[in-house]
Amino acid sequence: NRRFLLAARPQGMPKPDDFQLDTQPAPEPADGQVLLRTRFLSLDPYMRGMMDEAGPGYAPGVKLGQTMVGGTVSEVVASRNARFQVGQLVLSSAGWQEYALSDGSDLTPLGEMSRPSLALGGLGMPGFTAYVGLLDIGEPKPGETVVVAAATGAVGSVVGQLAKLKGARAIGIAGGAEKCRHAVEVLGFDECLDHRAPDLKARLAAACPDGIDVYFENVGGEVLDAVLPLLNLHARVPVCGFIAHYNEERGGAATDKRTQLLATVLGKRVRLQGFIILDHYADRFAAFRRDMTQWIDEGRIVLVEDVVERLEQAPDAFIGLLQGRNFGKLVVRVSE
Ligand code: NDP
Question: Which residue from 48, 51, 155, 181 has its CB within 8 A of the most atoms of ligand 1, so it is best to mutate?
Fold first, then answer.
């Protein structure tokens, strides 16, 4: 069983040496357990927080020397649990490794899926995040302007497409000309702006002549600076993440923006609402799966994946995610 352990707590951007590849014999299931083989491993921004001792804020960090955590699509390869059959695919949290044991309590059977990896992306946690964050908190109305950054990523790509589906204008922000072209031509954004090119503030103002009604916050940083002056009265800002700050020291450079942020929220009567998707599964997940499956079948939602081959590539691919090298939902194909 090859697996990646957390070898060191990163200072700033994680380095390959922060992960250690370890090899053990595959474990044997005890009575009541199943042995899982990882098919796909999801790589997600929250994992950066899990590398810190304090964790991302809603869960403790991974302990040094422990296997890196992560969602997986896994296959049951041995079963001593009557609820699971060999060959069955399940959604699991097996982490960055090839094999894992489970008593079944944390497993969700996947049933028939033509692209099982989508259970980690557009039909799973990131897609659900876009759905709850945009539809329940952002509440876009026809003709309104919705802005989202990391627009070609796992969450942002679905946010933009749902905004269009609800009749809003969707303005994306992404890193580089190729991602921006993809956002417009494939995902259907009305416009997409490159945050690495100069004058983002002026270009965003030009792209949003009627201001911004919904800003789906994924990144913070300079994008947030450009968005704030354009927010309309009663704008909604689902605060989903702030990846531009994930490699900063806690309490560091992000703090000085607070006054400006709060003054805007107050003056514009903005509802600024943080959310953790874990809170919404019981209420909203069934509706999400029903709607999303239908929209995919109708060709109204496109899900783009960035599939990296082999578990060994996981640290490099994860560091790439924090730098914008991924193009779409990042997953690792661990086995066929
Ligand atoms: P993505 O697939 O979008 O990958 C991350 C992307 O972030 C990169 O490709 C890059 O895109 C962008 N990025 C990285 N650094 C910066 C920066 N300094 N400035 C601007 N953009 C940057 O990841 P996800 O879709 O999985 O996650 C998007 C956000 O949603 C994250 O903040 C994540 O933490 C949050 N999230 C929150 C959840 C919740 O429950 N609240 C659940 C799931 C995700 P580009 O090259 O286009 O800049």
Answer: 155
The chain-wide mean pLDDT, for the chain, equals 95
**223 sits in which H/E element:** helix 221-227
In this structure, the answer to whether residues 114 and 164 fall within a common structural domain is no
Task: Take residue 43 and report the two structure tokens written for it.
Answer: 């790589």
56 part of a folded domain: yes
CA of 217 to the centre of ligand 1 (A): 9
Q: What is the pLDDT of residues 144-185, one digit of tens each?
A: 999 999 999 999 999 999 999 999 999 999 999 999 999 999
Query: Which residue, 334, 321, 324, is CA-closest to 47?
Result: 321
Same domain, 104 and 226: no
Task: Tell me which residue has its CA closest to atom 15 in ligand 1.
Answer: 244
Same domain? For 164 and 269 the reply is: yes
Using a 6 Å cutoff on CB, does residue 218 contact ligand 1? yes
In angstroms, what is the span from residue 243 Cα to ligand 1's centroid? 5
Nearest CA to ligand 1 atom 48: 175
Q: Is the dihedral of CA 77, 79, 85, 91 positive or negative?
A: negative
pLDDT for 189-239, tens place per residue? 999 999 999 999 999 999 999 999 999 999 999 999 999 999 999 999 999
For every residue of 88-135, DSSP letters joined together read -EEEE---SBSEEEE-STT-EE--S-SSGGGGGTTTSHHHHHHIIIII
State the residue range of the domain holding 200: 125-277
Distance in Å, CA 187 to ligand 1 centroid: 17
Q: Give the chain's domain count.
A: 2
Question: How large is the ipTM?
Answer: 0.99
pLDDT for residue 57: 82
